[in-house]
Specification:
This protein is an alpha+beta fold and 233 residues long. It has helices at residues 17-23, 33-49, 81-88, 104-114, 118-148, 170-175, 224-232, and strands spanning 2-8, 52-65, 70-73, 76-79, 93-100, 153-158, 185-186, 192-193, 197-205. It has one domain (2-232): NADH Oxidase (3-Layer(aba) Sandwich), CATH 3.40.109. Strands 1, 2, 3, 4, 5, 6 and 9 form a 7-stranded antiparallel sheet that branches. The chain has a two-stranded antiparallel sheet with strand order 7-8. The longest helix is centred in the middle third of the chain and has 31 residues, at 118-148.
Length: 233
C-alpha cells in the first residue's frame, strides 16, 4: 500500500467570500454588507486557526462482485451500491483518502450557536465544510498529477453517506487507515470527529474516467454540491 500524507496551507485552498455566500444561497451581489463583513472575519480567523491535513493510501482492488455491487480492498469488502460501483468497477486500485479542516472551526460554530448567534454559527459551519472540500480537491489533484506520470487516470471521489453508499461503511474504510495522519476519529454512528472532514475512495486505472458533473448519477436532492451547482448555472 502506497501512502502520502501532508499539511495544506490555507492560502492554497483559495476560498473567498463569494464562494461562501453562494453556498449560503446568495447569488453574486445579493448578500448584505454585514454578511460579507462577517464572512471575511470568519475566513481570517479560519486562516489562523485551522490545521488542514490530507492523506491517501493506494491499495489494489482484490475482487469486484458485479451482482452484489461490492469491491474488496485489503481484508474489507465494501458494499458501495450501484452508483459508486459503476464508477469504480474498472479501476485497478483505489486511493482511500481522508481530509480535515481540524477541530477548531467546528467548535467555533457550536459555541456561536449555543450563544444564540445562529448566523455566525452557520457561517463557521459553511466555511468549515468548504475548507474540508477544498482540501479534498487539492489531495485529488496531487494524486492525479502523480498517477499521470505512470500513465494512469482517476475517477471522481466518492464518500460513504452519498450516492446510496451506507455511511456505516466508514468503519471499514478507517480500518484501512489505522492511526491516520489527519487524526480523525469515528463515533458509534460512523460520524467523523473533527466533523469538518471528508473520507472516501478514488478509483485508479487506465480504463477509468473523471466526470466533470456527477449529480446526474445521484438522487440525493438535498446535497450541498447539487445546490451549489444549481446556483452557479
Amino acid at each position: 500500500m502506497t501512502r502520502s500524507a501532508f499539511n495544506i496551507n490555507f492560502s492554497d485552498l483559495k476560498i473567498n467570500i463569494a464562494q461562501i455566500e453562494m453556498v449560503m444561497g446568495y447569488k453574486e451581489g445579493e448578500s448584505q454588507e454585514t454578511i460579507s463583513e462577517l464572512t471575511m472575519k470568519i475566513l481570517r480567523e479560519a486562516e489562523s486557526m485551522c490545521r488542514v491535513k490530507a492523506e491517501y493510501a493506494v491499495s489494489p482492488i482484490l475482487k469486484v462482485n458485479d451482482m452484489e455491487k461490492t469491491i474488496e480492498i485489503g481484508d474489507q469488502v465494501f458494499n458501495v451500491k450501484k452508483i459508486v460501483y459503476g464508477q469504480l468497477k474498472r479501476s485497478d486500485s483505489v486511493a482511500v483518502f481522508l481530509c480535515t479542516a481540524g477541530e477548531e472551526i467546528g467548535l467555533r460554530s457550536r459555541e456561536a450557536m449555543k450563544a444564540g448567534d445562529l448566523l455566525e454559527g452557520y457561517i463557521y459551519d459553511v466555511v468549515g465544510s468548504e475548507i474540508a472540500d477544498a482540501a479534498a480537491d487539492i489531495m485529488q489533484n496531487k494524486l492525479r498529477e502523480e498517477l499521470a506520470l505512470e500513465g494512469k487516470k482517476i475517477t471522481n471521489r466518492y464518500s460513504p453517506g452519498y450516492c446510496d453508499w451506507d455511511v456505516a461503511e466508514q468503519h471499514k474504510l478507517f480500518q484501512l487507515l489505522p492511526d491516520n495522519f489527519c487524526g480523525i476519529r469515528l463515533n458509534s454512528c460512523a460520524l467523523m470527529d473533527p466533523e469538518k472532514s471528508v473520507s472516501g475512495f478514488i478509483g485508479i486505472g487506465t480504463n477509468v474516467r473523471y466526470n466533470e458533473y456527477t449529480c446526474g448519477f445521484c438522487d440525493m436532492k438535498d446535497c450541498t454540491y447539487r445546490r451549489v451547482k444549481h446556483l452557479s448555472i
